[in-house]
Amino acid sequence: MSFDSLGLMAEIHRAVSEKGYSQPTPIQQQAIPLVLEGRDLMGGAQTGTGKTAGFTLPLLQRLMQSPPPGKPVKGRQPRRVIRALVLTPTRELAAQVAESVDVYGRYLPLKSAVIFGGVSINPQKQKLVRGVDILVATPGRLLDHVSQRSVDLSKVEILVLDEADRMLDMGFIHDIRKVLALLPKQKQTLLFSATFSDDIKKLANTLLKSPALIEVARRNTAAESVSQVVHPVDKSRKRELLSLLIGRNNWRQVLVFTRTKHGANRLSEQLNKDGITAAAIHGNKSQGARTRALADFKNGNVRVLVATDIAARGLDIDQLPHVVNYELPNVAEDYVHRIGRTGRAGNEGKAVSLVCIDELKLLNDIERLIKRDIDKLVIDGFEPDPSIKAEPIRNGRSGSCGGNQRGGQQRSRKPRNGKSSSAGSSSRHRRRHNGGQSRRAA
Ligand code: AMP
Fold first, then answer.
1. Cβ count near 436 (within 10 Å)
2. Same domain for 93 and 140?
3. What is the 108 CA–ligand 1 centroid distance (Å)?
4. Chain centre distance of CA 118
5. Which domain holds residue 106?
6. Of 174, 195, 215, which one is at a domain's C-terminal end?
7. Fewest Cβ atoms nearer than 10 Å: which of 53, 282, 337, 413?
8. 295: in domain
9. Do 209 and 297 have their domain in common?
10. Rounded CA separation 181/287 (Å)
11. Is residue 438 part of a domain?
């Protein structure tokens, strides 16, 4: 199937051709006609499948095909209003979606803006005042704008919830519900999620009207183009093994996952000492530092990007060849998200997990989720010491396996999606919910 057969307008077609896409990915083939028809959509698609263009291309076309609300005054066009809203869980994903909107919409007279936290709110306000048709936002910062009256969501025609499962995991459900209450009842809603928990289904039931269901990869399965292997190894030797794998195999671009921010910092420092250029990316870093680290990684200035799950969410790095789970995630679904960073849009990818004895239960959970055993390969010279006993993993850290505890600040455990009184500002509310994030060691 080619893009020609999808009925996209010439301006969008041109932008897509210039981007170098020769044919639509499976999710684009399915989603584009349905969205163009005006249907609500529930899309099961991992990141890396081309889902962003899957919703952005028809969204742009829908906006072009229906007249903007308001009447021209004295021959002048009415002020722009926000007609499409895309909500994403993370700043990085918001920035990437906004970039896609810009690229795919470059030949259209539509304006877009992106708003997320961690940066000054004023430039965002100024952009909003000038008027935008499409707004890409993270829920928290969007509510900050709502409370400062710098956005009006009452004319939204199309709502996209991107990576909805992650937004719920991050405790954004209350913020999302607040945003939903500000939108018109009559609208087209598109919900994308890599996994379908009961919570996602509940949200979809309240939000979507007779949605079309599309799913491109089997639920909770890893992309077929990713080869997966587990190297059993003692925790104390993981760093040494990682350096060896990178050096011996001459890996040039490796995304490495740790469970904690502290672990990400420490590993990146150690790799640099080993002569392997590395940078860390996590929620405690300023937006500037995160953007810089990502840019350095993308352009090859640093070879290893060490990330926590939440920071890495939505990173779109073309043809990322290697993902390493330095520590397995506490939540099995995160494994699927992590390795979805590689093998994107059909490219070959390799996902390597360094697993110590404390993590065997986590590995078991992952294998149950993806319904397959992952090959285990002990690397010569790194055989696990059979005398080491497993210790429980708490708060993202473990005893023998979680590594050096000194210097690490133990975070208190907060309830996931902790119930709270309804009073309070959105930012206070969010802080409470970020307990969920810290528990997941963002
Ligand atoms: P996404 O799943 O939206 O994050 O997209 C993953 C990657 O696939 C991005 O780098 C896109 O630029 C790329 N991509 C999207 N659509 C296509 C296509 N039709 N052909 C080739 N690459 C694509």
1. 21
2. yes
3. 20
4. 17
5. 3-215
6. 215
7. 413
8. yes
9. no
10. 29
11. no
- 156 — phi, psi (to 5°)? -70, 130
At residue 436, the pLDDT reads 34
Tell me which of 3, 47, 52, 341 to substitute to probe ligand 1's pocket, judged by most ligand atoms within 8 Å of the beta carbon. 52
Question: Which residue's CA is minimally distant from atom 20 of ligand 1?
Answer: 21
In angstroms, what is the span from residue 166 Cα to ligand 1's centroid? 20
- How far, in Å, from the CA of 344 to the mean position of ligand 1? 8
Ligand 1 pocket list (CB less than 6 A): 21, 24-25, 28, 47-53, 316, 318, 344-345
Count of H helices and E strands in the chain? 16, 16
Q: 387: burial class by Cβ within 10 Å (0-12, 13-18, 19+)?
A: exposed
If you measure from the C-alpha of residue 21 to the centroid of ligand 1, how many angstroms do you get, rounded to a whole number?
A: 8
User: 83 to each of 131, 179, 188, 250, 432, how far by Cα in Å?
Assistant: 11, 14, 11, 48, 31
In the structure, what pLDDT confidence band is assigned to residue 198 with cuts at 50, 70 and 90? confident
Predicted pLDDT of residue 199:
86
Q: Say what the pLDDT of residue 192 is.
A: 93
